[in-house]
Each structure stands twice: as structure tokens, then as C-alpha cells.
Amino acid sequence: MTGVVETSWAGLLPLALAAVWLPLAACLSVIAARRMRRARSVLQSARSMAALLAAAPARPLLVMRDGAIDADAAFLREVGLEDGVGHLQQLAAGGRGLDGEDLAALAEELRSAVLTGARVSRSVRIANSDRVMEVRGGPAPPPSPAGAVLLWFFDTSSAEQEKVELARRLKDTGAALDALTHLIEAAPFPMWYRGADLNLGLVNNAFVTAVEAPSAAAVIKDGIELIDGPGSKGAKAAAQRALADDRPFSRNQPATIGGERRMLRLVDVPLGGGAVAGFAIDIQDLEDARFELGRYIEGQRELADRMTAGAVQFDPDRTLSFFNRPFAIMAQLDPEWLGEKPEFDRVLERMREQGRLPETRDFPQWKAERRGWFTSPAEALEEEWILTNGDHLRVVGQPLPDGGLRLFFEDRTEQVRLASARDTLLRVRTATFDNLFEGIGVFAADGRLYLWNRRFCSFWDLDESWLGEHPRVDELVPAMAQRLVNPTAAAQLRELVRSATNERRQGSGRLSMVDGSHFEFASVPLPDGNALFTMVDVTDSTRIEYALRERTTALEEADRVRTDFVANMSYELRTPLTSIGGFAQMLAGGYAGKLAPAAADYVGAILESVARLSKLIDDVLDLTQGEQRAVTIEHERIDLAGLVRNTVERMEAAAREKGLALNATIDPSTGVVIGDARRLRESIEHVLRNAIAYTDEGTVTLHATGDDQQVQIRLSDTGEGIDGDDQRRVFERFTRIGGTHGEAALGLGLPLTRQFVEAHGGTVDLQSRKGEGTVVTITLPRRS
Length: 784
Prior knowledge:
It comes from Sphingomonas arvum. It contains 23 helices and 29 strands. It is α+β, with helices and mostly antiparallel strands.
């Protein structure tokens, strides 16, 4: 039994061990499986962290207290270093890695951070490049050793560039905004800005000037609008419309700017946030220009209607847009039909029906060729149309830049006929030239003779065959010199031809030939640049001229002798006349005793006759001396109004004897003149005496007036007047004028009057008509 029991326990032991091991193994397997999953999770997390670290924009660097570093391989590659760098100072070596100065500053900051536990933040540069890295960090977290610092390096090169670029753009934007602000202020037209409430928030100087406000602040404070008065909603309504339409709103309105009515174009532009900006442009000049352009176009149309040439214009679509009356007449088309703006082809077809186009074999082809004028590159096309009735039209086509066409029609029928007549006239001219009494030669611009007549050859005794070679004027001068009394005068002919051809000046002169004949010549520039040389035989007229000159000289000598004789006789007559007057005065004074009444009357008549004769002699002497030398006058201050009044009073008795009314109107403006009182009194007396003598009935009127510069005395009568032929002779010496009263004795009054008045610097004017009386006007300056 004992053996059996031992055997049984020995067999059960493995089973017991197996029973114990199996749960233990299962438990270990579970634990192992959990750890494997945890390990795989940690590994996966580590891999994810590594991937995230690799993809992160920052690279880590662990720096120990002693300067040793644990560097990321990617970081080393980014700064240009290779693996194996183990110390902080090795990050800058051989021109690679970090900039030496920046690394030294970073090391100093790290030492301070280790002592104080502060955070590290600075920028470092990569050596020999434009790259910049931002360094940030602080004490390394456990399980890193004490005093270790974890740094993160961010590559901020692009950010720095963007930062610099943004700074530059900000600066440029500020400068642009400042320039724009100055530009708005300096703008010559009003500009404004409205806030969300549509009230004015900003205006420029032009706006302030336009509304005549003291300042921009006053404009904004008082809400002064450019167009509408304060408180009006017109300007705000336009801004609201621009905001509602979300696009600029423009309108034209008149305004008073600087006291002048001007037309403005106002534009409101919607901005973000409900604000509105606007500006105003003075378009008054544009409106004036538009008005003037309209007037110009209308004037051009009116001018076109007055042209002799026909004009018609077609639009790019070949419809008629304009025509004038001459075109309608030339084309024989109804203006009402043309007013319907027919197409180009229809116009040609209607003109063909009216017989106003030239005959062609293929009209459609001809019409297509004319249709091509619309797109022709030529500036102008010209044709001559000969119509079936013999009319000749010149047609000019002008393609327009917009694709249209303008046509001009000129009726040259009369010109063609005139050209034919001209050819006939040229032949007649040649025959006429050869039969003229004048010698004619035409010289070209180069001085060659290319046209002459037979008289020219005979006057100069030249060989016509030699002239056929068209010699120059220099070659003609020696041949001409042989025919002249003064051979050197031939050079004058050459100079005249040169002046007429080159300087376009006329010239003339006289030549004497050796055969005793005389010629007058002239050179005349012709429109074609040539010169016409003419010669006229004036031998007979020269002889007559010499005879007339001799006769004129003799007449002048006889007139001088007569004048001297009259002057001398006047002086001689004074001596006996003075004696007669003196003795007569003695008799009248009773020196020979008391005279009987009849004898006293006789003596009185003698004295009166002596006075008249003395006056007549004085007049003759004044007249003859005035012809020989200037009249000597006194220069004194004269009350002309009183002088005229006194003269009229002296002549009233003579007027009453003839039953005439002598009326005088002396205006206070007559005033004072400087001159010779005696001469002026005699001048007025002469005119009054003539007026009374030649007036049988009616009135003699005198009117005197003046201004600051002159005095005018106007004497008129109702006498019989003077014939037109006699009016030219009344101021001549010793002229006898016939009339119903007989002839004047000597005719001294008016010549003396003119002589005395002109000596004072004045004028005498006579106007008369037979049967209507005479008016004599004396004009005297204030100062002679």
C-alpha cells in the first residue's frame, strides 16, 4: 500500500505542477500581451512624435550647463553643419552654422537663463546668408539634467522678408496716402467726403473757395453744400442714390462760382461702410465748346449750301447723312427724297435714271468699284465724269476715318468750254501781238526771251532768227546799246527784267534812240513768274510835251508879270488917292470956306468913294502879296463872339436897304480865339457882303458856335446860288462869276477870305445849289 501510495503521489506531482503552471503561464501571457501592446503604443507614439517633430517648423536643441549640446540632425543640416557637433561653440565654425556674434550673444543669454531660470528669446542669423532663425526656450523639463536648457529654432527668413516687405508697403502706403491727401487739397476742382450719416466730413480748398467760406471747418460745421443752400437735401439725395445703385452717380447742374454762373458735372462715388466721396468738374467751357461746335456745324452746313460745288456724305452703313443744295441740283434729285437718307447704291441708280452718270457697259461693276471707295486706303480719289448731255463733272471722293464717304461734285462744263475758248484766244493773241503798235517781249524767270512781236524786232533792229534761239537779257543788252543815244542806259533794261522776275517789282522809264525817236518802256511781273517788257513810241507826244512846257512857262511868266503889275499899280494909286482924300477932308472940314449943301454932298460922295477905293487897293495888295509870300497876321486874344456881333451890326444897314432879314445866332461857346482881329473881321464882312449882294429876298443867317478845339461860323443865304462849275472858281483871284446880277467886279472877297482864314490855320467850305442859296462855313482853331 505504501508503495502504491508513493507511486500515486509521484504520478500526481506533474499534474499538480502543470495545474499550477498553466494558470501562471496564462497570467504571464496576458501580462506580456499587455506590455507588448503598451510597447507598440509607446513605439507608435514615439514614431508619431518623431514624425511631428520632423514636420514641425521648429528644431530642438538641448544645451547642458557645461555647453554640451544634444542637437537634432535636421537642425544641423538647416544651419549648414554636419553630424557630430557636440558643443555650443561648434555651431559657428568656418563660415558655416550660426553667425559668430549672434552665437556669442545667445551663449551669454543662456548663461543668464541657467542662473535665473528666465526664458530665452532672440533672433540669430545663418552665416553668409540672408536667413534668420528665431530662438525661443527655457529650462529643460525632466528627466533632463539640472541646468539644461531646451531651445527651439524657428526659421523666420520668409517671415522677416515679409515683415520687411510689409513695413516697406506700409511706408509706401503712408507716403501714397499723404501724397493723395496733398493732391486732393491741391486739386483745382472741389472734392468732398461724406460719412455714413451723409454729412460733409472732409472738403478741399477748391470746395471752400467755391462756396466762399472762411475755412473747411466752417463748411463742415454749417453744412454748406456746393450746389444747394444750407439745409437742402438735394446733395444728400444724390449721395443716397449713389449708395442705392452701388455705382457712381453723375449729373450736371448750374452753380454760381466766384460771382459767375457756371455749369458743373457732379459725381458721387459710393465707398465702403456707407460713406460717399464726390467731386465737381467745371464743364462750362465744354458746354460753351459744344455750343460753338453746334454753331460751327450749322455754319458749315449753311456754308455748304452756299457753295457752288455739290457735297454729299454717307455714313459707314452707306446711308446718306448730309447733302447740300448744289448737289441736289447737279444730281437732279428731289431734296425730299434725299432727306429720307437713301442708301449709296440707290442714289447712284437714281442719278443714272436722271442721266447724271457717265455711260458704262457694266453698270453693276462700275457701281461696285465706287462702293469700294468707302474702304479705300487713299486719302482722296478723283474722277472726271463726262455725261451724255455734254456736261463735265469733276468728282472727288474722300474716305472718312469712321468708314463713311464724302463726295464733292464740281461742274466744270463751263471751264472746259472756257479752256477751248482760251486756246482760240491764244491764237488770236499771237496774231494781235504782231499787229500792235507797241513792242512786246516776255522774259522767263531765268532771263531768257521766249515771246516777242514784230514791233519789238523792228524797234531794236534785231534778227528774228537769232531771237528764235531765246537769248538771255545779258546777250540782248549789247545789241540794244547800239540803238541808244546813251548806250549805258541798256544796262537799265537788264536790271528792270531782273527786278520784275526775281523781286516781282514793276519798273518804267524812257529811252532816246539814235534816229531821234523816243520810247517809254515798262516791265511788269506776270503771275507765272515771267516778266512783260513793253515799249511805246512817244516821239510825237514828246514833242507836244516840250511845246506845252514852253507854253506853261510863258503863261506862268505872264501871270507873274500881271501880279507884279497889279501890285505896283496899287502902290502907285495910293499916292494920288491919299491926296484926293486929304483935300476932300479939308473941304469937308471948312478949310476953304463953308460949302454949299450940294457941294458938301459932293465932297461926302468923294470921301466915300476914296474910302471904298482905298479898301479895294488894300484888298488887292493883300491878295497879291499873299500869293507871293505868306500873309503876316497878328497874334492877339480876340473875343470872337463880340467881333462877329459887331460885324453883323455893321452889315445890318446894307441888309435893310435890300429888304433882307439878317439873323445872327452867336452861341456862348464861340468864346475867344488867338489871331488877327482885322483880318478875321474882313473875312466875315466879305462873306456877308457877298450874301447880301446876291440875295434879292429872304434871309441871310449867321450861326457861330465852338468847342474846346475850334470855332465854326456858318453863313447861309436864300439867294440864287452858284452853278457847280462856278463853285470851283469862286476862290480864284480876279474871277468874274456871271449871274442875274451881272458879273462881280474883281472877285476879291472870297479869295481874300480863304487866304486870311488859312493863314490862321482854318478852312473855308462853300456849298451851293442853283436856286437854293449858298452856305459858307468858316472853321477857325482856338490857337493859330
